[in-house]
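Data's thin. Show one?
=====
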Amino acid sequence: MTGKRILLGFLVLLLMTGMLFIVGCGQDEVVDEPVVDDPGEDTVDEPIDTVVVVGSKEFTEQLILGQIALLALGHHGIPTVDETGLGGTMMVRQAMEAGDVDLYWEYTGTALIAILGFDEAITDPEECYAVVKETDLERNQVVWLDYTPFNNTYTIMMRKADADELGITSISDLAAAINEGVEAPSPGEWNLASDHEYTIRDDGYPGLQELYGFEFDEAFPMDAGIVYDSLKEGDVSVSMGFATDGRIAAYGLVNLDDDLNFHPVYNCAPTLRQDTLDALPQIADILNPIARALDADTMATMNMKVDIDGYLPEEVAEEWLLEQGFIE
């Protein structure tokens, strides 16, 4: 009996050892199984499936601003479509209201007069922005993000040599010279080169003559980019322009002082429909710091690089964004 008990004990011990071995193997297999992430963990950014269509007007500054928005949004993973260079103010604005464009840069003075229909200019940048921002949101569900320090107001220009010779420093001086019959510089008439919008806008050619009390012999509507060359080459004696255009200094032109404050302020801001911002609220965080960094010297330099040095708008936009650390 003693031998059988010993044998039976040995078999029980052997059986228990095997069970421990099996259990141990099972535990090892559980530890070695791949760890599955908790679905609630934010391990990667979700892809953005909302496409933002970026538009712009057709002139140089607008093309640059459009590319700045495209590059900045794309850098943050927001899909975009480039519809820059669409045309004039109302064409781009109507495209946004129709849902064909989601975002473009607009000027406070332009919105105040041409879009929202106010009769009187506002010459204080902060006040003009506040009025436009509140009114456009209330009437049209259009959101204005932060505005730029640069004020690209309309300007009336002459060749600097002619202005110096005739002692003309302001628009009032110009009006007096015309009304007194002072002989005009080349081409011998007091005529004006103007882009198509300025020729007909209330804050343009008609209102300018009414306020200052004079009349040009003739006004020549043309594309915005041509007015500077027409004045430089002596085809006209006076031209409208935009205050931040790099060609003013490069071509030896001078801005006449708007001493009666006819032109509204034209600070610029990204504008977009409320539903676009609701879908992608991060757009404000992306574009607001960029808008606040765009001062007059910066904008004039970028404009000059395109118009004088031959760079493409997207090249100067990318260069500036990289320099400022907005993209990498």
User: Anything to note?
Assistant: The two ends are 87 Å apart (CA to CA). The first helix runs from residue 2 to 32. The longest strand covers residues 80-87. The chain has two domains: 52-151+268-324, 154-256.
